């Protein structure tokens, strides 16, 4: 039991250590403002990583999320700007479209037995291609609704401010927590990641689960794109390049096994927070260059993968086969 | 007996492995020369020929070659020259994919090796062969890191190489101190933009790499071992193949190929840009290998077909330019072509297509 939770505790300890290191070195680091900024700056990554967790738990991978973020941002900006739609109507159209896109990838993976890696790679090119086709330039968003949302939020003491997008992100985390750990769909996902053949034999609706899984990942990515558009007040086809890798890294640092079947939503949240804290620390320091964050994240990735390997060594031997 | 039994057992428990078994048999009986060699080459070559045909229809001058200043110029030479870095990556990637792995780090390795070259050349007191040698060694070292993680630590290839993909670009930026490092060295620049016997030097480098690798893999048992490990690592271990050593070797070779690609890219722009050198080229290389007919599950590879895959991708982007379509269509068309190629590789889809065709025929016959 403790073994299962160990990676989670280590990530948690690292988050605390990172925060402690920042707080001891810089004035103003240990404030609610820093914490709430951490959430709002990483909101879109966190929402993307939630969907990625689900996909990785099932033993798959979704490389298309970064492009879906860009595409939904561009679509929102265009629908609200030139087409004069109300933002809520635009979102109501974009989210189902994203779900259909994800379901399509899921169907290809399920029915044609294609590899998730290459199918979602094609999806990545497709979404990015459609986004650049629709608009190559950054489209600015100006709408009273966006201003209203920007002003809405919870004022906290100590300079903290939880904006509407942060609140939405927290709500989505709670929703995914329940969906993954306390729902039938969640247990299907774990079963699929553990062993898809056994899952099939046990009566898990493998096809439905796979398709739903990729649909929800794309839908969460589209939500992240909308959150990103609130953050930047624009939609840009070349935005969020490489976010899929950040999301995968956060999921792995959060202790989820890439082979599927083992991991926690809360681990992903901690993984995103840790990556955000490293960036915040570098910003506070000022003398450290940005490339250190990449190197540190790479080292952390290696550390967690090696740790997982060590922990799972005893029961890994029976899996065998191809690495 | 033991090997056959193991292979059969694994087939029995997993019907999806039937293809792999077939590949294993072919590899066993005729290394590197499968029974359907002709048809395997047919589809990629037909695709390439069709693309070239479209180009000629769009631009009658497409096949024209001019001799100027001791080298050939023309759209075809352009395609060859531009494909060189990805072709080198694809050669290494073929081997990695043949073992059932994947190497996401090659783009970052290109950036690191480019940074090494640029900084050494800037120091000035390093000889030309030493710079090249150190860059290749750096690439091999990166490959060693990947290979060690995959084979001896048993980490999933996607994750193991993701580490270097993320950290590698950081290392390259660290070497360059965040700047774009430029240098003046005509000898080195010739590797990217020079020519030899009428053809650009990068094209010669690709041909040389292809020749050496092909000899190494098909004239020794190494290629067969790689395919065996890709089919079933466990079974090949029982056969006495050092599966871990083989995996380590393929990542080493991929690192070396990435180093060469990085050298060409750096020499071409006479500078090292840690942010953009080789960015996303790993995806192009993987794509080329898949278009060349290799399965990502491993078990077979063909270097010439991977290079044809690269030429298809490069010709496709040239076609889009020649056709006058704005370059923003580039990604979309690429995505659709990948999807088409993927679907054609799926047996179910081929069967559906066949039944659709025969249905049409039957109806046609009745009428």
Write the layout of secondary structure elements.
The complex is a heterodimer of chains A (323) and B (367).
Chain A: H1 2-25, H2 32-41, H3 43-57, H4 65-80, H5 87-111, H6 116-134, E1 139-140, H7 144-151, E2 153-155, E3 161-163, H8 164-181, H9 184-194, H10 196-201, H11 206-232, E4 234-235, H12 243-253, H13 265-285, H14 291-311, H15 313-316
Antiparallel strand pairs in A: 1-4, 2-3
Helix pairs in contact in A: 1-13, 2-13, 3-8, 3-9, 3-11, 3-12, 3-13, 4-5, 4-6, 4-11, 5-6, 5-11, 8-9, 9-11, 12-13, 13-14
Chain B: H1 2-13, H2 18-29, H3 37-58, E1 66-68, E2 71-73, H4 75-98, H5 106-123, H6 128-152, H7 157-176, E3 181-182, H8 186-193, E4 195-196, E5 199-200, H9 201-218, H10 222-231, H11 233-238, H12 243-269, E6 271-272, H13 281-291, H14 303-322, H15 330-345, H16 347-366
Antiparallel strand pairs in B: 1-2, 3-6, 4-5
Helix pairs in contact in B: 2-10, 3-14, 4-9, 4-12, 4-13, 4-14, 5-6, 5-7, 5-12, 6-7, 6-12, 8-12, 10-12, 13-14
Gist?
Chain A is mainly α and 323 residues long.
Main sheet of chain A: which strands, in order across?
Answer: 1-4
Calculate Rg of chain B over CA atoms.
22 Å
* Mean of all residue-level pLDDT scores of chain A: 88
The chain pair forming the largest interface, with residue counts per chain, is: A-B, 48 and 59 residues
**CATH topology category name of the largest domain in chain B:** ABC transporter involved in vitamin B12 uptake, BtuC
Enumerate how many helices of chain A there are, as a single number. 15
**Mind telling me which CATH architecture of the largest domain in chain B this is?**
Orthogonal Bundle
CATH architecture of chain A, please?
A: Orthogonal Bundle
CATH fold type of chain A: ABC transporter involved in vitamin B12 uptake, BtuC
Helical residue percent band of chain A: over 70%
- List low-confidence stretches of chain A: 314-323
Strand order in space, largest sheet of chain B: 1-2
Shape of chain A: globular
Number of domains of chain A: 1
CA-CA gap between termini of chain B: 55 Å
Q: So what's the CATH class of the largest domain in chain B?
A: Mainly Alpha
Distance between the termini of chain A: 25 Å
* Strand and helix order of chain B: HHHEEHHHHEHEEHHHHEHHHH
The pLDDT mean of chain B sits at 83
Which structural class do you get from the secondary structure elements of chain A? Answer: mainly alpha
């Amino acid at each position: 039991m403790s073994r299962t939770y160990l990676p989670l505790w280590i990530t948690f300890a690292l988050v605390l250590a990172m925060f402690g290191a920042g707080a001891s070195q810089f004035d103003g680091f240990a404030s609610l403002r820093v914490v709430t900024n951490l959430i709002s700056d990483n909101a879109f990554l966190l929402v993307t990583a939630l969907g990625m967790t689900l996909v990785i738990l099932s033993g798959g991978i979704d490389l298309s999320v970064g492009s879906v973020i860009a595409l939904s941002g561009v679509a929102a900006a265009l629908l609200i700007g030139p087409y004069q739609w109300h933002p809520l109507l635009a979102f109501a159209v974009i989210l189902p479209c994203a779900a259909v896109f994800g379901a399509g990838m899921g169907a290809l993976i399920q029915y044609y037995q294609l590899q998730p890696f290459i199918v979602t790679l094609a999806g990545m090119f497709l979404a990015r291609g459609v986004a650049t086709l629709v608009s190559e330039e950054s489209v600015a968003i100006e709408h009273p609704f966006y201003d209203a949302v920007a002003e809405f939020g919870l004022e906290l003491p100590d300079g903290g401010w939880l904006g509407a997008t942060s609140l939405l992100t927290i709500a989505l985390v709670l929703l995914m927590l329940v969906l993954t750990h306390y729902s039938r769909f969640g247990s299907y996902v774990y079963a699929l990641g553990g062993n898809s053949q056994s899952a099939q034999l046990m009566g898990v609706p493998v096809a439905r689960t796979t398709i739903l899984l990729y649909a929800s990942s794309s839908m969460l990515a589209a939500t992240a794109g909308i959150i990103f558009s609130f953050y930047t007040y624009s939609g840009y086809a070349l935005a969020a390049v490489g976010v899929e890798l950040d999301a995968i890294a956060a999921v792995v640092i959060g202790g989820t096994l890439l082979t599927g079947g083992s991991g926690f939503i809360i681990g992903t949240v901690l993984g995103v927070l840790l990556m955000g804290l490293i960036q915040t620390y570098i910003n506070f320091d000022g003398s450290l260059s940005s490339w250190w964050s990449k190197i540190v994240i790479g080292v952390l990735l290696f550390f967690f993968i090696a740790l997982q390997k060590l922990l799972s060594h005893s029961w890994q031997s029976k899996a065998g086969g191809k690495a | 007996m033991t090997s056959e039994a193991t292979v059969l057992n694994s087939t029995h428990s997993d019907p999806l492995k039937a293809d792999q078994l077939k590949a294993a048999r072919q590899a066993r009986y005729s290394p590197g020369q499968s029974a359907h060699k002709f048809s395997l080459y047919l589809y990629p070559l037909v695709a390439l020929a069709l693309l070239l045909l479209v180009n000629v229809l769009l631009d009658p001058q497409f096949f024209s070659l001019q001799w100027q200043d001791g080298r050939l110029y023309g759209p075809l030479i352009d395609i060859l020259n531009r494909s060189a870095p990805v072709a080198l990556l694809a050669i290494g990637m073929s081997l990695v994919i043949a073992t059932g792995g994947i190497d996401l780090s090659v783009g970052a390795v290109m950036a690191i090796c480019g940074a090494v070259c640029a900084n050494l050349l800037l120091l000035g007191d390093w000889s030309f062969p030493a710079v090249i040698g150190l860059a290749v060694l750096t690439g091999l070292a990166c490959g060693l890191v990947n290979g060690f993680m995959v084979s001896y630590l048993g980490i999933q290839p996607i994750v193991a190489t993701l580490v270097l993909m993320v950290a590698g670009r950081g290392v390259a930026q660290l070497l360059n101190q965040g700047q774009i490092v430029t240098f003046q060295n005509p000898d080195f620049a010739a590797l990217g933009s020079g020519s030899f016997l009428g053809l650009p030097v990068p094209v010669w480098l690709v041909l040389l790499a292809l020749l050496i690798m092909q000899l190494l893999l098909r004239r020794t048992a190494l290629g067969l071992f790689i395919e065996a490990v890709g089919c079933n690592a466990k079974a090949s271990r029982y056969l006495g193949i050092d599966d871990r050593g083989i995996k380590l070797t393929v990542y080493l070779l991929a690192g070396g190929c990435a180093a060469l690609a990085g050298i060409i890219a750096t020499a071409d722009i006479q500078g090292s840009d840690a942010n953009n050198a080789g960015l996303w080229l790993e995806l192009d290389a993987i794509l080329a290998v898949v278009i060349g007919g290799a399965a990502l599950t491993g078990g077979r590879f063909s270097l010439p077909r991977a290079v044809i895959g690269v030429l298809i991708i490069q010709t496709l982007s040239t076609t889009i330019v020649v056709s006058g379509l704005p370059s923003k269509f580039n990604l979309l068309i690429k995505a659709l072509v990948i999807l088409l190629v993927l679907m054609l590789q799926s047996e179910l889809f081929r069967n559906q297509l066949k039944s659709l065709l025969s249905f049409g025929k039957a109806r046609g016959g009745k009428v």
